[in-house]
From TrEMBL:
Belongs to the bacterial solute-binding protein 1 family. Pfam families: SBP_bac_1 (PF01547). InterPro entries: SBP (IPR006059). The keyword Nucleotide-binding does not apply. It comes from Microbispora triticiradicis. This is Extracellular solute-binding protein. It comes from the Bacteria. Residues 1-22 form the signal peptide. Keywords: Signal, Transport.
Length: 435
């Protein structure tokens, strides 16, 4: 069931005032996919753990590799084989390897939307009672929920995120704005004013289904209604949200979207000062701050909640979980690796160096995290985050929508017929669900 990530939960963590508590939950595994037997002492565990990291290889990967060195120093009998797998390829690559029983990693950095699917297929080891699920009371409830399936834990939350409106303060100021737009109507006006008064583009869109969700949520729409098993992507509310995007494109408020590699094109245009605004998440902090117009002037980089539609301001809850392959031959070592990489100390280091949002409450008050001002800056956007449906089919819902969005952005279709086609495709994915 989809529910809002409440302000109270996120603000409690992001106010940086929560005290850590709780103890370790030990235990080791007795076999692939089985309940842990809890025999080997951590110091005696040995083996090699292959980790597929799906983060950005340039800006994020090096920080995770630093943590691996720390882990190997703590557990000298365990070696980690680090493999950076492009995020766009990871889901299919893991499924292929897991299905064949050959080549799957011991540990995978899994998108939150993939956990239920992989668990339903039997590809993930249950983690309850293992060293991997350490101090679970520290986790923010909604990110932790992404790792659950049928009452069991199959993933522990590594980082959480959402989408915000990122903006170039100087360009908005030059166009006559001291504050970023708070509504979708204001977004269009500000983008057009930037275009006419500065010569830069107002808004760059990423033609991806995930980035379409703030517009849909803003009008009260969604992919699906899980409790009632109903497909809602073509509902009047969802149609109203996508029409906003269509209007942004046709009016010129948004620059003509690139249909191939649109994420990189939008991101590059923003950090080079060619557009004033984009929608993106905290994972892009380091990349943006290394850009032409922000590198020497980080205060020019603004973060705000996504603009509100007629119903609300809402952006998808995202993030990644650590998961362990059910067929791993090194389960004990894998559980210890996950425990170390997902500790409050490791999360604080990641937050400080990369601006990624922790999932453990105590990490927010750690000195390494508080040293990065971007962590607190994402408090408001996170209060608008909307939990996605944790169903096995969730990840499959994006492809039909992104294909439709590409046709819409390319002028090959309009909103209503596009969403009708997407809803039909969903009927083939969600067996027995109604429109």
């Amino acid at each position: 069931m989809r529910r809002a990530l409440t302000s109270a939960v996120v603000a409690a963590a992001l106010a940086l005032a929560v005290t850590a508590c709780g103890g370790d939950s030990g235990g080791d595994s007795g076999g692939a996919g089985s309940a842990p037997a809890g025999s080997a002492a951590p110091a005696e565990v040995s083996g090699t753990v292959t980790w597929w990291d799906t983060s950005d290889a340039t800006t994020e990967g090096p920080v995770f590799q630093e943590l691996i060195k720390d882990f190997e120093a703590k557990y000298p009998k365990i070696k980690v084989e680090y493999v950076n797998v492009p995020f766009a390829d990871a889901r299919d690559k893991f499924k292929t390897a897991a299905q064949s029983g050959s080549g799957a990693p011991d540990v995978l950095r899994t998108d939150v939307g993939w956990v239920a699917e992989f668990a339903s297929l039997g590809y993930l080891a249950p983690l309850d009672g293992t060293a991997a699920v350490d101090k679970p009371e520290e986790f923010l409830p909604v990110p932790a929920a992404s790792g659950k399936y049928n009452g069991k834990t199959y993933g522990v939350p590594q980082v959480t995120d959402t989408l915000g409106l990122l903006y170039n303060k100087k360009l908005l100021k030059k166009a006559g704005y001291d504050e970023p737009p708070a509504t979708m109507a204001d977004l269009k006006k500000a983008a057009l004013d930037v275009k006419s008064k500065t010569g830069a583009g107002g808004l760059a869109l990423n033609v991806d289904a995930y980035f379409l969700l703030p517009f849909i949520y803003g009008e009260g729409g969604d992919f699906v209604d899980v409790p009632n098993k109903k497909i809602t992507i073509s509902s009047p509310q969802s149609v109203a949200g996508v029409k906003i995007v269509e209007d942004l494109i046709t009016s010129g408020a948004a620059v003509k979207p690139a249909l191939q590699d649109s994420y990189t094109n939008a991101e590059t245009a923003f950090k080079d000062g060619k557009v004033a605004m984009i929608f993106n998440g905290p994972w892009s902090n380091a990349d943006n701050l290394g850009g032409k117009v922000f590198k020497d002037d980080p205060d020019n980089f603004g973060v705000a909640p996504v603009p509100a539609g007629s119903a609300k301001a809402g952006a998808p809850l995202g993030g990644h979980d650590y998961t362990v392959y059910a067929g791993s031959k090194n389960l004990d070592a894998s559980y210890l690796f996950v425990q170390f990489m997902d500790s409050a100390e490791s999360q604080a280091k990641i937050a400080g160096k990369l601006g990624l949002l922790p999932t453990r409450q105590p990490a927010y008050s750690a000195s390494e995290a508080t040293a990065n001002p971007k962590i607190a800056q994402w408090q408001k956007p996170m209060e608008s985050a909307v939990e996605r449906p944790w169903i096995p089919e969730a990840a499959s819902l994006f492809q039909p929508l992104v294909e439709g969005y590409q046709k819409l952005a390319g002028g090959q279709t309009t909103t209503e017929p596009m969403l009708k086609d997407v809803a039909t495709a969903y009927q083939g994915i969600l067996k027995g669900w109604s429109l």
